[in-house]
Amino acid sequence: MESISFENRVAIVTGAGEGIGREYALDLANRGACVVVNDIGHGPDQGRTADRVVDEIKRSGGQAVACFDSVATMTGGQHIVDTAMDHFGKVDILINNAGILRDRTFMKMTEQEWDDVIAVHLKGAFCVTQPAVKIMKENGYGRIVFTASSSGMYGNFGQANYGAAKMGVIGIMNTLKLETARYNIKINTVAPNAATGMTQGAFPDEVAKRIKPAFNTPMVTFLCSEENRESGMIFTMSAGWFARSAMVSGKGCCIGDTKRPIRAEEIRDQFDQIKSLENALPYEHCGEIYSLGRPLTGR
After folding, report:
1. Does the first or last residue of the chain, that is N or C, have fewer Cβ atoms within 10 Å of its Cβ?
2. Does position 286 have pLDDT exceeding 70, yes or no?
3. Where are the beta strands (DSSP E) in the chain?
4. Structural domains in the chain, sorted by start
5. What is the pTM of this model?
């Protein structure tokens, strides 16, 4: 089996001081990448977790540098990218992994709990990605991985802020893949599952033992490689299970002739067909439905 190599590649991994991000950074470094390990740390470990990962990489003969800026501001995002440029001269790979949780039911959630999560997950994805993409565009190459969550795609009790932010990240990907396609920049999103410090207490012990952070790494490593030619896809993964997830559109039905008014009663009478997902297609094949107001040919 020929190994995937990242020789002469420079990667940024946010939230890489522990958990899933740490595993991403270590694997990329072990395969030859120069890595910017970004993490602000928390509690008594603030500022130390990134240093520990960098030390681990260097002890193994790799190249890495720590960066402690928050992803939640444009200044922080720019400095994270500048760190890669100052030390390694370019940016080839960006993994947007940084995250926090502020779980609370929707009716009790505070504005601050909402803003904190949106700032790190959604705004943070913008703040780091924009300066990184500018460099990738100039170089004609880039690989970006965003991090979504099943909490956004399917819902999870007490995580309205987190779920909203994660679905917003998918929205960024869907647009950015179109804007950067001509520059050989491939952008994908993963929805990982793991027992980490951030999710401590969320899983029963028996489940936590099976969903190790490292089991998410192979997919992300491949998506970051030159060999990956796909862009704009979402991949869900847990405990060694990997699958593509996608938004889909059903066949639906057409009412009226695009000239006369359409009545709510007609929707009622056709509702079973409208809501059916039989023979559904992934959303990227459904653009003609929305632009022309008619089903795709052959459906």
Report:
1. N
2. no
3. 10-14, 34-38, 63-67, 93-95, 142-147, 185-191, 234-238, 241-245, 248-249, 281-282
4. 10-245 (3.40.50.720), 248-292 (no CATH)
5. 0.90
